[in-house]
Amino acid sequence: MIFLIPWYENSGIRLIYGSNKSYVANEKVMDCILNRKACFLSLALLFFLIFRYLTWAWSGEVVGITDGDTITVLNRKTLKNAKIRLYGIDTPERGQAYSKRAKQFTSDMVFGRVVEVHRMDTDRYGRTVALVSMDKQLLNKELVSRL
């Protein structure tokens, strides 16, 4: 295994490989090494930030069904209710044809169960727009495939 250890001397920058081998690096070599290090750190930071948002989810019990595409979930950590609008789903509103059927389907699937909420966005009414999963099933997908 090769270890790069920069060692600053009066004669320039000495790079030490392993235990005994070393050489004095010119500025071009050091620029290349420092650029790679900066690039690696930038990519690592970017990965960390993206990974954090891709995996950020929370769980809670479904305590209410507003209609076919909006549920209320009691967050287990904060113990607060959150209105969740299902991402990519638009079911009939109250009073429209099939609205009762959509609400009943959503209720049968998740009411009283613990679900995992994967936040995607927030809508103009302040509701969390999210993917909702339970027992390795995605509620959003089930609504589309079964209704």
Specify the number of helices.
Answer: 3
CATH architecture heading of the largest domain: Beta Barrel
Query: Ranges with pLDDT <50 over ≥5 residues?
Result: 1-10
Overall average pLDDT: 78
The class by helix and strand makeup works out as: alpha+beta
Helical content stands at: 25-40%
Rg value: 27 Å
What proportion of the residues form beta strands (DSSP E)?
Answer: 35-45%
The domain tally reads 2
How far is the first residue's CA from the last residue's CA?
59 Å
Write a concise synopsis of the structure shown.
This protein has 147 residues and is of the alpha+beta class. The protein has three helices and nine strands. A five-stranded mixed barrel has the order 4-5-6-8-7. It has a three-stranded antiparallel sheet with strand order 1-2-3.
Describe this protein's structure.
This protein is of the alpha+beta class and 147 residues long. It has two domains: 4-55, no CATH class; 58-146, OB fold (Dihydrolipoamide Acetyltransferase, E2P). The protein is built from three helices and nine strands, in the order βββαβββαβββα. It has helices spanning 27-55, 99-110, 139-146; strands at residues 4-9, 12-17, 21-25, 58-67, 70-75, 81-86, 114-122, 128-134, 137-138. The strands form two sheets. Strands 4-5-6-8-7 form a five-stranded mixed β-barrel. The model is unreliable at 1-10 (pLDDT under 50).
